[in-house]
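Hi support team,

I'm filing this because I wasn't sure whether my run with zinc ion finished correctly. The job status page said complete, but I'd like someone to confirm that the output block is well-formed before I use it downstream. Pasting the exact inputs I used:
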Amino acid sequence: MWFQSEGINGINVGNITNKNAYLEKIEIKTYKLIQRSYRYMSDRVYIFDTTLRDGEQVPGCRLNTQEKVEVAKKLEGLGVDIIEAGFPVSSPGDFTSVVEISKAVTWPTVCALTRAVESDIKIAAEALRFAKRPRIHTGIGTSPSHIKYKFNSTPEEILERAISCVKYAKKFVEDVQFYAEDAGRTDNEYLARVVEAVIKAGATVVNIPDTTGYCLPTEFGEKIKYLMEHVDGIHKVTIATHCHNDLGMATANTLSGLMNGARQAEVTINGIGERAGNTSLEEVAMILKSHAELNLDTNINTKKIASVSRMVSSMMNMPVQPNKAIVGRNAFAHSSGIHQDGVLKNRESYEIIDPKDVGIDENAIVLTARSGRAALKHRLESLGVHMEKEALDKCYEEFLKLADKKREVVDEDVLMLAGEHRSARNRIKLDYLQVSSGVGIRPVASVGLDIAGEKFEACASGNGPVDAAIRAIKKIISRQMLIKDFLIQAFDKGSNDVGKVHMTVECDGVNHNGFAANSDIIAASAEAFLDAVNKAVVNNA
Ligand code: KIV
Ligand code: ZN
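And here is everything the job wrote out:
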């Protein structure tokens, strides 16, 4: 809503949601009164998405440039204001991704991260050369431990470096964002000096990260309030929050920051990010939408949240925890009898959000063996997957095979089929797998692999059927490969269900995530293992 319709300062304006009509109706003539009325309007909160930078820093979640461009376009469609596309100096892959994302998106600002180092800034500016709205995000640690141990420096030297990096970045772009790393543990008085100095040096946005996720919501809110009240020139710039979730308070801290004057929230899809992750985009967007009394609005088209969440989860092979707020599988599932009864009588008894508002349509057409290609295409698109005709034809063939085995094909099945389409690009494919196992015998597996068109075979025994299959694969691919994480989940219920497997495999010291789904869970496990190994092969190519 543009402003509250109950009226301004006691003047009843009826049901008007258009600014001009409103001004005409009550004939506000003086500038002073208009200014006063603005206090009742919603303020805009800018959504800065760092899924492709801070989110992608998670071991095993790396995307290639093409995948990053796909995600960036989805973020643009979702209504994100700023996309942090990467850290160009960190790798050639990050540099190229920033270049390609800059070309691919139209209206969001594209941002590139740097340290307070001139060569970083120069390279970031080069990577941003095609961006319609480029932003350089530069900064330095300001907490006592960063100053002393990370930089072996002094507060005064750090202040100088902060000023210099902003001034240097300003030579390349107008829009310069400064971050005070570990601001959460930085003394407020010193932080205010740094913020004031970088504003004078030309920063347009100042980011106050709670890098370690340590702050309490009241403490973080007070920090922002302190800056708003003590920094000269702060009202000329945007203050940003960037909260990590180490103590589970990232969203609460972000909200507290916004309620005290910050107007940019730095977030990731599904809250992914290093350690316990970052603030979730979907949580911030839905809190602000649900609590109109905060008078804070975003540009997020919340109906697209579910599909973007699923796309990021499947591309990064990062399962979303079932009870995750807004996007978890159980977020709108009512299993207890009392709750089901209440929801059936009136949804609002137990639900504060209509699932349709986040893009979950429970009445969507059910996909079965009689569904056509168009229905499958429509469902894929609503889940955030676009396929050209040839890929769609292949996917439809697989869909019909699955629909023959299952009564009903659910969204997860469709995403699994789309994943198979992605894994079709893998260089190493499972040609065949035969396993004999049972009670009282040691399981044995024979495996056939197709590696870039060449066929290989091996046999092995193991503690269980999955162990035997993986051992056989390891006989063909002789690299250091260690399974670090292994999760098998059923999509649905019933013994005819498809099992999905997420696996993290350490290959030559680096973690890679793999995913596969199959009605045979041993095959799904072998395929997930190979999916991870394929990523290692691509990264080393
Ligand atoms: O958590 C953090 O402090 C960051 C900065 C680099 C912005 O990610
Ligand atoms: Zn961070």
